[in-house]
Every structure is written in structure tokens, then in C-alpha cells.
Amino acid sequence: MQPATHGEESHRIAPTHIAAVAWRSVLIPAALPALLLVAVAACAPQNSPPQQIEAQNPSVTYRYRGDQELLEANQKAMNYCNQYHSVAQTENIHNESDGSKTVIFNCTALPPAQVATTTTPGANMVYPYRTDQELLEASRNADLYCANRGSQRAVATVVTNLDGTKSVSFQCTP
Questions:
Q1: How far is residue 104's CA from residue 94's CA, in Å, rounded to a whole number?
Q2: CA distances, 165 to each of 42, 49, 129, 130, 158 (Å)
Q3: Longest dimension (CA), the chain
Q4: Do residues 113 and 144 lie in contact, with contact meaning Cβ atoms separated by under 8 Å?
Q5: 11, containing H or E segment
Q6: 159 vs 118: CA distance, rounded Å
Q7: 92: closest CA among 56, 132, 130, 127?
Q8: Does the structure show a pLDDT above 70 at 164?
Q9: Cα separation, 4 vs 7, whole angstroms
Q10: How confident is the model at residue 73 (pLDDT cuts 50, 70, 90)?
């Protein structure tokens, strides 16, 4: 083939031009998803703060037999939770196969001051109860009552009444 002369148009395409067109037709479609990914990533926040997924309060578990041991476990749980500036809240009470029971206390943030009952200072606070949960609640209320009056704790005495019901009395001690 002869080179084109003046006035004639060449319909011939240089081989380097063909190679460049071929590479563009392959590279542009292949690179498009990667370019879109970079563009989206550039729009996303670069430094996101850590997000809390789960948190658990400290807890403590005690095995006990009888009401007096339950009250002792409650007092120990209160002391344990105190190191976390928290109070012990009963999560669950389980009956064990050997006849004992297990109580789980969760340490929760201190509640606002509450008055449990209206009694005169130094007088016994008496609470009837039927379940371990009610006994623990009475103990917690007595402790709050005493704490609101400047005492450190309430001393408990458990009594089984003549009719078979139970009651617990508390007295604030310095």
C-alpha cells in the first residue's frame, strides 16, 4: 500500500492507536467499580468513635440456707457493691438440689435517697414477709432508712410468729 498523497484521506489506523483503544475498552469498565468504591470511601467519616456493644455490672453470688444466712449474704453483697459505689440488687434466687439456695446480686448505681417507713428514731422497723425476695427488699429498705438518718446499717432479727408467718425487725446502729 502506498502512502496517501495530498488531497487523499488515509483510512488506515496506526497500530499504536489500536492498542490504546483496546486497553481503554478493557481498563475503564474494569476500573469503574474500584473508582466508585474510592469515591464512596472518601465520603464516609474517616474516624468514627468506638461504639459500646455490651456492658455488665459487677455481680456476686452466694449460697445460703435459711433467712439469717440470706440476710448475711445481702449484707456481704452490699459491702461488695460498695467498692463500685453501687448497691446490691437481687437478680435471681435459685433452689439447689441439696436444699440450699443461690442468690445473685447485681451492683447497680446508687438510687436517690428514699425513706423506707415512718418510725421514730431507735424504734424497731418490723416487716412481715413470705418470700426471700420480700425479706431482701425489707432489708434494703431498712438500710436506706438508717442511712438517711446517719446510721451505717440496720441490724436484723428474724422471728417466726405463732401463726407460722415470719417477720423481720430492724434497728439502726451507729
A1: 9
A2: 72, 56, 8, 7, 11
A3: 130
A4: yes
A5: none
A6: 21
A7: 132
A8: yes
A9: 8
A10: very high
The whole-angstrom separation of Cα 35 and Cα 25 is 16
Contact 76, 55 (CB under 8 A): no
Which H or E element spans position 156?
Answer: strand 153-160
CA dist 141 and 127 (Å) reads 10
3-class DSSP state of 40 = helix
Average pLDDT for residues 73-87, to the nearest whole number? 90
pTM: 0.57
What average pLDDT does range 42-59 have in this prediction?
72
Find out whether 78 and 70 touch, Cβ atoms under 8 Å. Answer: no
Average pLDDT over all residues of the chain: 76
**Tens-digit pLDDT profile for residues 122-144:** 457 888 999 999 999 998 888 88
